């Protein structure tokens, strides 16, 4: 590993998160870049090795399930953090709060008055076709009329430096444990920078999450019983479920650990007997939480859970049905929602999007498939997408047919030039594309945004795929208050 | 603590203990066979009977020769009491409770499992059998030591201990049964010349020989050996001591009356007159050990119904003391 020379580092024309121009770090990244440049090659190698050891010792892993054997892989991590100045972050934070507030009002409206449909702002046809609309939730008003208590929105930065919201994850967003662990590893590896670097802490998330969950309790107790409901060890996010349970000191339960009593309350089976459960942070999809209400074949859920929730005897976070807003077509309406419910302009823009259900926009999409990314409404994890510029003519023709057969199910966006950040690779320092997933907590008492979020990096040169199961990695994310920085 | 987690830990501890004790059981039998003239009626078949695995063995195997019995007891995953079967089960139980167990315990059981699998690759080589058994016993001791040394006093630890003690009572009684089953000549005259050897083997299989020696200080006699294994209050694998510990552990749990009563019942059986005399009466010893094993299964039932909860749980009863820890 050669010494890091910022004059030799070239972001290839992309926006770089640390470097404004060769040899010139952004002001908030100057302390970090100077520090790294002062290390010799063996010291950098040592830091990299120390991070690997820390990850192994701390047991930070993610699960890949294949061939009937479970493999826990070490979490792929790059030691060079990604930096966002506090002043910029404050605007992003305000934008995320605004966005999630509008989304919650939208979900609540859909399950109750449906004003936005009646006023012609949101098309009735779209609602009628929504696969994540749950008729079982109609007429319900959860406390504070909040549905999406935990939201993970993906942010990307384009060539000109503008930050866009790429999508909102309102069902069961994951990754926050890795955000916390990335910081723990970085503190071990670069402790000097934390003394004077003006880096804002992230570790109050479990407390914030716990407080939010407590505030949802249907019983005014000092210590309500909170649980995390997991599908079990074979779920790819099981590490996170166990991690959050440990951090909050709550039970990690599976569906079979709970029953709904004749009093329509939820109980968990413990060695002390049946103990009432007040709040369930469920990491199980809607369709599997209650075989009586949804998929009757599912063994992951608790029969009668929906009834207990409807009766107000237990809080479910996120509320069932919140996924109705987790739809890439619904996404395109978020700026209109913000205008409609909050009478405000969106602080963070959406990526410009084309809806195939509108004739003129569909014509544009079909004529420009080689320039666009086409996404189906309800897939996640990058499945079922067409990345036009990288696709074969045959693949584009297939998508043209899919779009014409079911226009409601598709939307398209221009391919963005995602920003990059310097990353340690086998060839030395190199720019790699990245995104950012902050987490937003909402309750009747207000909202909270993580300090930064989980930065995911495409470790393969030129790649835009940041998923860890496909060779993606991650970085610690620093929100830096330059006014609080001292000399190093 | 969740019932499921408690149950998994209990079974994990039972399986670790069963792994170790099955290895001991095979070891003592093998040593007895090596020590005895070829004319005796020692038979591997009895081991299947002692472990209570007749039905499943007969389902998959024909004759009960050494190779088949050893393959079955060491390597057959279809039988949950085989060494690799029990080890695999302990490992699976630990998977779902990794959040409450020290990480090193998981790593140890994983590596023991992998090591065992590679030692048993292919057929069982009799020359490597002792290596394998020693590795297994040592690995299990390491595991119980780690749990003892790194898991805080908590219900998790209690359920590990409970499972371990109960399985040990059951398996120690089965190892003792080696002496009473058809392994040995029936006529007292045939028995005499081998008495010391046989009992020494049983004691050695329980790692009890040295401790016995320090305590009894006479040549090894059946009566004394039985007294030591059943009634000693200080030796860790002695049944009396296991039951006493088991009772103490159970008493720390909520609603423990039924389980404690089931243990007390067994303690009384043990203290009856003439227990030690059973050494000279193989049939009666066998009957006694059978009773002991039935008793352990009653204790298990009491534990299961009290703490693990079944599909048919009783109507919800909220324990207010749990909900208001401060009151």
Q: What does this protein look like?
A:
- The complex is a heterodimer of chains A (488) and B (327).
- Chain A is α+β, with helices and mostly antiparallel strands and 488 residues long.
- Among the domains of chain A are: 242 residues, Rossmann fold (3-Layer(aba) Sandwich), CATH 3.40.50.11290; 61 residues, Dna Ligase, domain 1.
- In chain A, the strands form 7 sheets. Chain A has a 5-stranded mixed β-sheet with strand order 5-24-23-20-19. In chain A, strands 7-6-21-22 form a 4-stranded antiparallel β-sheet, sandwiched between helices.
- Chain A starts with 18 loop residues before the first strand and ends in an 8-residue tail after the last strand.
- The model of chain A has no long low-confidence stretch (mean pLDDT 90).
- Chain B is an all-alpha fold and 327 residues long.
- Chain B folds into 2 domains: 150 residues, no CATH class; 158 residues, no CATH class.
- In chain B, helix 1 packs antiparallel against helix 7, helix 8 packs antiparallel against helix 15 and helix 14 packs antiparallel against helix 15.
- The C terminus of chain B is likely disordered.
- At the A-B interface, helix 9, strand 9, strand 11 and strand 12 of A face helix 1 and helix 16 of B.
